[in-house]
C-alpha cells in the first residue's frame, strides 16, 4: 500500500469513527478529477458541478461500503460516472436534444482538459489555437471513447483502474483507447500540419 493510500485509509477510518470534518481533506485532491470526469459527460460546467457535488455526497453517505479493494480515487470516479449517466437518462426523459445543435456562444474553454499539451508549441497564439483544436476533437468523440481518453490520457489512470471505474474488461479499455487515439489522429493530423512545433518537442504521443 502506498503512502497516499495509507493516509486515505487512516482518514476514512477516522471519518467513519465520527470525525466527519476530515472528509473535505480526503476529497480535496480528487475534486478536479471528479469535475473533469463529469464535464466530459455533460459538456456543461453547471451540470458538471452539480454531478461532482452529488458524487461527493453519495461517496460520503456510502463511505462505509468502501472496501479498499481498489483505490479510493477509482471508487470515487465510478460513483461520478454513475451519477453522470443517471443525469443524462433523466434529461433524456424530459427532452431530446439535437446532435446538430451548436454550442453556446461565449462558452469557457478549460485548458485543464489538455493540461499536458498547454505548452506545445510555446508561442501563445499557436498554443491557444492547438488547445481549441484538441478540446473540440476530444469533445467530439463518441462517449465511450471520450471516457476512456479522459481517464487514461488526461487523468492518467492505469488500464486496470480505468477498467474498474468503467466496469469493463482490460482488453476493452485497450481497444477503446486505441480507437479513441486513432479518431483523434485522423481528425487532428491535417489541422496540425499548419503549425510547426519547436525543436525536440512532441505534439501528441500517439501522433
Question: What would you note in describing this structure?
Answer:
The chain is mostly helical and 207 residues long. It folds into 2 domains: 1-104, RNA polymerase sigma factor, region 2, helix turn helix motif (Rna Polymerase Sigma Factor, Chain: A, Orthogonal Bundle), CATH 1.10.1740; 109-207, Arc Repressor Mutant, subunit A (Orthogonal Bundle), CATH 1.10.10.10. The chain has 9 helices and no strands. It has helices at residues 3-16, 23-28, 31-42, 45-61, 72-94, 124-139, 143-154, 159-166, 170-192. α3 runs antiparallel to α7. It is globular and about 60 Å long. 24% of the residues are buried.
SSE map:
Elements: H1 3-16, H2 23-28, H3 31-42, H4 45-61, H5 72-94, H6 124-139, H7 143-154, H8 159-166, H9 170-192
Radius of gyration: 19 Å
What characterizes the major β-sheet?
A: none
How many domains in all?
Answer: 2
What would you say the CATH architecture of the largest domain is? Orthogonal Bundle
Shape: globular
Short description:
With 207 residues, the protein is mainly alpha-helical. It contains nine helices and no strands.
Descriptive labels:
207 residues, mainly alpha, Rna Polymerase Sigma Factor, Chain: A, 63% helix, 9 helices, Arc Repressor Mutant, subunit A, 2 domains, disordered C terminus
Amino acid at each position: 500500500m502506498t503512502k497516499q493510500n495509507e493516509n486515505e485509509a487512516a482518514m476514512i477510518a477516522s471519518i467513519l469513527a465520527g470525525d466527519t470534518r476530515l472528509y473535505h481533506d480526503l476529497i480535496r485532491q480528487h475534486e478536479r478529477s471528479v469535475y473533469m470526469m463529469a464535464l466530459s459527460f455533460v459538456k456543461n460546467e453547471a451540470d458538471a458541478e452539480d454531478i461532482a457535488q452529488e458524487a461527493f455526497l453519495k461517496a460520503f453517505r456510502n463511505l462505509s461500503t468502501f472496501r479498499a479493494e481498489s483505490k479510493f480515487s477509482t471508487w470515487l470516479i465510478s460513483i461520478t460516472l454513475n451519477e453522470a449517466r443517471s443525469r443524462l437518462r433523466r434529461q433524456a426523459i424530459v427532452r431530446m436534444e439535437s446532435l446538430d445543435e451548436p454550442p453556446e456562444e461565449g462558452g469557457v474553454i478549460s485548458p485543464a482538459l489538455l493540461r499536458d499539451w498547454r505548452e506545445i508549441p510555446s508561442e501563445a497564439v499557436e498554443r491557444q489555437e492547438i488547445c481549441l483544436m484538441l478540446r473540440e476533437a476530444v469533445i467530439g468523440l463518441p462517449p465511450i471513447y471520450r471516457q476512456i481518453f479522459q481517464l487514461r490520457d488526461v487523468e492518467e489512470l492505469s488500464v486496470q483502474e480505468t477498467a474498474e471505474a468503467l466496469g469493463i474488461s482490460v482488453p476493452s479499455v485497450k481497444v477503446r483507447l486505441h480507437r479513441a487515439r486513432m479518431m483523434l489522429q485522423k481528425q487532428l493530423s491535417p489541422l496540425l500540419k499548419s503549425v510547426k512545433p519547436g525543436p525536440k518537442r512532441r505534439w501528441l504521443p500517439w501522433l
